[in-house]
Specification:
Largest sheet: none
Helix content: 55-70%
Shape: globular
Structural class: mainly alpha
Strand content: under 5%
Number of strands: 0
Order of helices and strands: HHHHHHHH
Number of domains: 1
Length: 245
């Protein structure tokens, strides 16, 4: 699998480590500022933010900042992975494959980890209102692609993997560091889901990041997989079933 990634025709433009760190810091700062302002306006009652939507402004702001930085550096949207798949007919199979791998990993990894250390269940109490609420479930399913799937993939796969690749390179160890690096950040930003949620989203980041590279750095494939995963997630919240995504 690593060989398939490292043998890609993709060539990341050269970038100095300092420049990469500045770019990442800008996106992080913009996201944190948006998160802080959201908390402020919510606490003051100026613009009430539903608990299910907390953090959305940070993700959207970070994605906008990431796109702006890439364009300002002379890049294009294709550098973020927004390009036409080589064969559209294989995209559904790629999406299904990504979901199958993640569901299998989500079932097996916790069982293996639990033999070494106790990992709590993800804290998804912020979505309690979705259980049995058909209108709420439909609304959440419709907005998640725009407020989570697309902006998160722009930041963590398209932007962060691109920036880390320019630092770590495309050799085996560089690919591993890149994938696990962006997955660690992706897991950390889901702190509101508790330790169990961060572990779950870290695992998602590893699989989504690997899939992004294996699919020729095509962001659309991973966005579709992420959106399909969110749909299953909402269905499970509505039914009150145990979460696997």
């Amino acid at each position: 699998m690593i060989d398939a990634i490292t043998s890609s025709d993709y060539r990341q433009p050269e970038a100095k480590v300092g420049t990469v760190l500045v770019d990442i810091a800008i996106v992080a700062a913009v996201s944190l500022l948006a998160f802080g302002l959201e908390d402020l306006v919510n606490a003051r009652g100026w613009i009430p933010v539903a608990v299910e939507a907390r953090g959305v402004s940070a993700v959207l702001s970070g994605a906008i900042a990431a796109v702006a930085i890439v364009l300002a550096r002379g890049g294009t949207l294709a550098d973020l992975g927004f390009k036409r798949p080589e064969r559209w007919r294989v995209v559904p199979f790629q999406v299904i494959g990504i979901l199958v791998v993640f569901i299998a990993a989500q079932s097996l990894v916790p069982a293996l980890v639990s033999s070494l250390v106790s990992v709590p269940e993800p804290d998804l109490s912020r979505y309690d209102s979705i259980a049995g609420n058909l209108g709420g479930a439909i609304a959440l399913a419709l907005v998640l692609p725009l407020t989570a799937s697309i902006p998160e993939e722009i930041i963590y796969r398209g932007f962060l993997i691109g920036r880390l690749t320019s630092v770590f390179g495309q050799h085996r160890s560089g690919v591993v560091l890149t994938v696990f690096g962006q997955a660690l950040v992706f897991g950390a930003i889901h702190f509101m889901w508790g330790v169990g949620g961060m572990v779950m989203t870290f695992l998602m980041g590893v699989i989504w990041g690997t899939a992004y590279l294996l699919c020729g750095r095509n962001l659309w494939v991973v966005i579709l997989a992420h959106s399909a995963g969110h749909l299953l997630f909402v269905i499970q919240l509505y039914l009150g079933a145990s979460i696997i995504l």
